[in-house]
Amino acid sequence: GAVVSQHPSRVICKSGTSVKIECRSLDFQATTMFWYRQFPKQSLMLMATSNEGSKATYEQGVEKDKFLINHASLTLSTLTVTSAHPEDSSFYICSAKPHRGTLFETQYFGPGTRLLVL
Amino acid sequence: AQTVTQSQPEMSVQEAETVTLSCTYDTSESNYYLFWYKQPPSRQMILVIRQEAYKQQNATENRFSVNFQKAAKSFSLKISDSQLGDTAMYFCAFMKPVGNQFYFGTGTSLTVIP
Question: How many CB atoms lie within 10 A of CB B36?
Fold first, then answer.
């Protein structure tokens, strides 16, 4: 149980294009999802917190117009990297927190999406 | 703000031996959760063990156990009978009870030597 999927697993795009990454909780409902960015050999950096039906909360220094987050349902959150540039190349990981009362306090992570912007 | 520090960037251990990974954190919260996650080369984050700050008893999961010292804000992970499959990056994480944001340490790369 508690499986989180991400799609695509890897994507290569041209500079200036937009890329959408999906994060799905497959067997539980998640009112809250989180998006992280991880550079090679570094830790996970929280980018934003996504709550179902409301606007995402972005961490300091993260451009909300650059990284658009939508959490339209209890099982799906999307991250859109708009007008991607090479510096946006990274590994993006989502996580989902089960709805309170169903599973204990933790987050379950997706397998990540590797983005390469040429 | 919450900060999590892992002072050991790399460690190695002989197979079947025991190794301890250290983690310290700083917070003004009185209630929170602490976690150890493992990230193998596949980069999938895997939960190893969790600890609620209000529980004094140290958490244990099979070969994995923690030494939680709340006053010292220390949360170390002990891996007993190390196995080759334990080779991975290990991240210590702090979670706020309100908002549930995770704050990760910089990670410790553990290599189990056959």
Answer: 26
